[in-house]
């Protein structure tokens, strides 16, 4: 005992005093035990022995918003902290090699793509009203091909982000497709055309993720580029011009000026570009058009938010997963395809409903069909949010798929019945912009509610809010009936 150590008898210390409370790598007490959520499951699965414990994370959008300040203030410490946190890499699906500046921006990629569509869709529609559908469609597809080429050749996160920006600006081909269908004179043909567009989306929604799962990471952008070039060649060879010269808008400058006013969400909801046209619709028809635009925005705002959080819910409650990042944990579990099977079931159901039921909805019955589908979404999301068994989840997904297959084609058919032939591109572009705005805002709001209040609160509140667009559709007559009265 030459160093002066003093021994104490065992009776001087109690048993509880000898047991130290669990502490983290910064010698701070760990939080109290809570029911395991998605972050807890991911942390326990990905943590290896000796690796520091990850702290509880706020919502991803909040991290992305404040991340740049953290990166610039604590650049070296931030790099070390990010590399030690497997939960962050699991949540946003990126590798450790990405720099911290790119990491701060990655949480905004999904919403930025929809916001770019919000800005570009009305301008694309206005240009097609004057120049024709075919040349503007080819221009959009060329932009999409360029975006995939930049993605395939990219070797940095910033180059990938640039490809997403180009793709978002060029994404007017969807609204142009609906405008081409709207040019068809016969209402039954127009309704069937909107249903066919819905079937195409459902089939792509089903086959696309499966194809991407089988391809390597390096091959995905090249295959996308091949499809984009093939689509461009097909349109160039086989698509005729659907808007005759005598029915086009007199000046593209007038259309751009009117569409530029629609960069305000309030002006979008008011369909201001249509009122500034040489042949504006009647006041009652304009009110109906504005109500349909509000219904479309509210529906996609709620639907896209719950669709975004659906993957989190099934992972948290049923341990569904679709991938496992390499290098996380000594013995990673084999990847399961439950989420892939779930989305395959959703896409197949939507394609079946759109190919059998939706395309056979007779003209004048679209409002009733959309209202019925809106009502089905209430029990659908209640079953999904509260169900703890696979049969309950399957029933909710079945109702969810049926409603999703009817609402968007039905609303698109209704909106395409408004306006003169020279206005339909602008009107469908406005509708697409409203949808893009809803898809940009919905996931951020729903994800925040999901992580702060839980899955049950998120799905219950949003399911109840679907009654709002349902009540907005009450007493709304079909535009053909209003036109006959005029």
How are the SSEs ordered, and which strands pair?
Layout: H1 15-18, H2 38-46, H3 60-73, H4 75-83, H5 86-92, H6 100-105, H7 109-131, H8 133-153, H9 157-169, H10 173-182, H11 187-214, H12 219-238, H13 252-260, H14 265-270, H15 272-275, H16 283-318, H17 338-356, H18 366-386, H19 390-416, H20 424-453, H21 455-465, H22 467-472, H23 479-485
Jot down its keywords.
single chain; about 475 residues; mainly alpha; 23 helices; about 0% strand
Please give a structural write-up:
With about 475 residues, this protein is mainly α. The protein has helices at about 15-20, 40-45, 60-75, 75-85, 85-90, 100-105, 110-130, 135-155, 155-170, 175-180, 185-215, 220-240, 250-260, 265-270, 270-275, 285-320, 340-355, 365-385, 390-415, 425-455, 455-465, 465-470, 480-485. It has a single domain, classed as Growth Hormone, Chain: A (Up-down Bundle), CATH 1.20.1250.20. Helices cover about 70% and strands about 0% of the residues. The N and C termini lie far apart (about 105 Å). InterPro entries: MFS, MFS_dom, MFS_trans_sf, Tet-R_TetA/multi-R_MdtG-like. One of its GO terms (molecular function) is transmembrane transporter activity. It comes from Cricetulus griseus.
């Amino acid at each position: 005992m030459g160093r002066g150590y003093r021994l104490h008898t065992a009776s001087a210390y109690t048993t509880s005093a000898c047991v130290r409370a669990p502490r983290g790598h910064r010698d701070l007490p760990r939080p109290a035990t809570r029911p395991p959520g998605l972050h807890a499951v991911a942390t326990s699965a990905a943590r290896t022995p000796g690796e520091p414990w990850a702290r509880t994370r706020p919502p991803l959008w909040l991290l992305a918003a404040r991340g740049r300040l953290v990166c610039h203030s604590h650049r070296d410490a931030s790099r070390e902290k990010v590399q030690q946190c497997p939960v962050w890499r699991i949540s946003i699906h990126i590798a450790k090699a990405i720099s911290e500046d790119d990491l701060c921006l990655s949480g905004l990629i999904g919403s930025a793509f929809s916001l770019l569509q919000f800005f570009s869709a009305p301008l694309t529609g206005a240009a097609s009203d004057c120049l024709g559908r075919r040349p503007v469609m080819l221009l959009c597809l060329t932009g999409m091909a360029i975006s995939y080429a930049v993605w395939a050749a990219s070797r940095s996160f910033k180059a990938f982000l640039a490809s997403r920006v180009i793709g978002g600006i060029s994404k007017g081909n969807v609204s142009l497709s609906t405008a081409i269908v709207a040019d068809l004179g016969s209402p039954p043909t127009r309704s069937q055309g909107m249903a066919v567009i819905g079937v195409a989306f459902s089939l792509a929604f089903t086959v696309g993720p499966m194809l991407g799962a089988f391809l390597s990471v390096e091959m995905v952008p090249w295959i996308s580029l091949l499809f984009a070039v093939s689509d461009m060649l097909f349109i160039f060879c086989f698509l005729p011009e659907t808007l005759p010269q005598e029915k086009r808008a007199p000046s593209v400058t007038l259309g751009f000026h009117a569409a530029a006013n629609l960069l305000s969400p309030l002006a979008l909801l008011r369909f201001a570009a249509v009122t500034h046209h040489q042949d504006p619709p009647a006041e009652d028809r304009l009110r109906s058009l504005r109500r349909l635009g509000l219904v479309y925005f509210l529906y996609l705002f709620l639907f896209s938010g719950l669709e975004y959080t659906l993957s989190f819910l099934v992972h948290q409650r049923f341990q569904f997963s679709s991938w496992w990042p390499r290098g996380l944990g000594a013995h990673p579990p084999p990847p399961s395809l439950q989420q892939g099977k779930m989305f395959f079931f959703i896409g197949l159901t939507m394609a079946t409903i759109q190919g059998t039921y939706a395309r056979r909805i007779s003209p004048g019955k679209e409002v009733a069909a959309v209202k019925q589908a809106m009502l089905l979404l209430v029990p659908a999301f209640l079953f999904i949010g509260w169900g703890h068994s696979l049969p309950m989840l399957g029933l909710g997904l079945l109702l969810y798929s049926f409603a999703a297959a009817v609402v968007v084609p039905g609303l698109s058919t209704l909106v395409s019945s408004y306006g003169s032939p020279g206005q339909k591109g602008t009107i469908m572009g406005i509708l697409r912009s409203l949808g893009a705005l809803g898809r940009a805002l919905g996931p951020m709001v729903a994800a925040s509610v999901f992580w702060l209040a839980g899955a049950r609160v998120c799905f219950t509140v949003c399911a109840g809010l679907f009654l709002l667009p349902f009540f907005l559709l009450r007493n709304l007559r079909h535009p053909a009936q209003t036109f006959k009265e005029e």
